[in-house]
Amino acid sequence: MTDSVLTTLEQAVASLVHELRPRCPDYLQDQQLRILVPAGLDLDRGSATIAEVGTAFGINLVTARDDDDANAVDRLLTARLDDAVLRLADLDTTSAEELAAAGARSAISRPRAAPDLQWRTLAVGGEQMRFATGGSRGTPLVLVNALAQAPDFWFELIDRMLPRRVVLFQCGGVLEDDTPDGVLSIDQLRTGLEAVLDHLGNGTYHLVGWCTGARFSAHLARRRPDLVASLTMLNGAFKQLGVDSADDSGYERVIETMCQTVENQPQLADQLAVMVAGSVGRPPAGHAGDRQAAGQAALSGVDPAFTEVLRAPVRDGDSLRRYAHQLFQLFSEDPFAMLPPAGPPVLCIAGEYDEQVSLPRFARVAAAIPGSRFATVAGGTHFFLHDRSDLVAELLNDLLAGTAPRPSTREISWR
Predict the structure, then answer these.
(1) For residue 9, which of 107, 206, 369, 395 sits 20 to 30 Å off, Cα-Cα?
(2) SS3 letters across the chain
């Protein structure tokens, strides 16, 4: 039992350190990571064991009561321990050998995944559709990327899903250097996705759409239900220009202004590109002395390694014009009109700290699809397909295996 609790503790700490160290190393250096223990739980030697586990990971790990000083990071770490929090007293009997083994395991870091993918193109209506394939087993998993996003955010999830067959569809027309002035339209991209799947000829597919890619996936599930074995939407962007604006995220308000401005005054795109690119990927401001703000900033931050990837759609005026035009087309549509009726299983997953899309609107979209399930990942960001690829892979594998959804935990809540 001691080893079970110790292993759970290791895994919870390792997953959090793996996420936070790249995007906010100062937090781990300056702040304690606190495990929130319930009243009445007394630890003796277990507190020293917890501290030594923290030392092995290079952090200050302590226990604390769940009080007003506990922040979002503390609550997330505690959520990942789940009911093991109630058994932390078992750590009192941890042997020196067990602790040494835990320290050795903590030194093993998993390298950033670089999955083996074969990039291909297919001419559809005179335009080149770009996609990648990998793996060889089972019904293919079709990952529909967000508009104008590089594929990098998918790589860790793909690595965890292989050797299952995977198809990654790029919603292109912005990042490519040879893109013509006439940007690919939303209808062309939808036709392209459908044509790629018909070309691959696998019969049915498990669709997984992220952000704006969720809309393409939902549209395909409505139009071609014969192609769809299941539908999963990750942090779906279902904004409609000028509708339900009170639910917009701050990012969506910026996007709406950008789209409207560029659509009406395209000559301003060069100036806007300078301003927008300068704000993308900027690290959160420091929060000296404010643990609440520091914790939320740590969880909502983005790995600086992705800064240039995120800036790519707005790197210059031409790119921004193409990107804004695609978004304007997509967000001019009623998202509820493109949703599939009752049919294959539908899973929607949202990150608690998604600052890019409106989670209330995404939840309403999920509720409008008969039989869909909606999960919220505690501490998840818009990029949790990368940050929490392990958890997303587990939820996908449950869906693909047809097993009953796992019960709600402190980390995953279902509506």
Answers:
(1) 395
(2) CHHHHHHHHHHHHHHHHHHHHHHCHHHHHHCCEEEEECCCCCCCHHHHHHHHHHHHHCCCEEEEECCCCCCHHHHHHHHHHHHHHHHHHHHHHCCHHHHHHHHHHHCCCCCCCCCCCEEEEEEECCEEEEEEEECCEEEEEEEECCCCCCHHHHHHHHHHHCCEEEEEECCCCCCCCCCCCCCCCHHHHHHHHHHHHHHHCCCCEEEEEECCHHHHHHHHHHHCHHHEEEEEEECCCCCCCCCCHHHCCHHHHHHHHHHHHHHHCHHHHHHHHHHHHHHCCCCCCCCCCCHHHHHHHHHHCCCHHHHHHHHHHHCCHHHHHHHHHHHHHHHCCCHHHHCCCCCCCEEEEEECCCCCCCHHHHHHHHHHCCCCEEEEECCCCCCHHHHCHHHHHHHHHHHHHCCCCCCCCCCEEEC
* All domains of the chain in start order, with CATH: 2-106 (no CATH), 113-415 (3.40.50.1820)
CA atoms within 13 A on the CB side of 52: 19
Is 358:249 a contact under the CB 8 Å cutoff? Answer: yes
Structure confidence by residue, pLDDT tens digits, 15-59: 899 889 888 888 999 999 999 988 778 787 888 899 999 998 999
User: What pTM, to 2 d.p., does this model score?
Assistant: 0.92
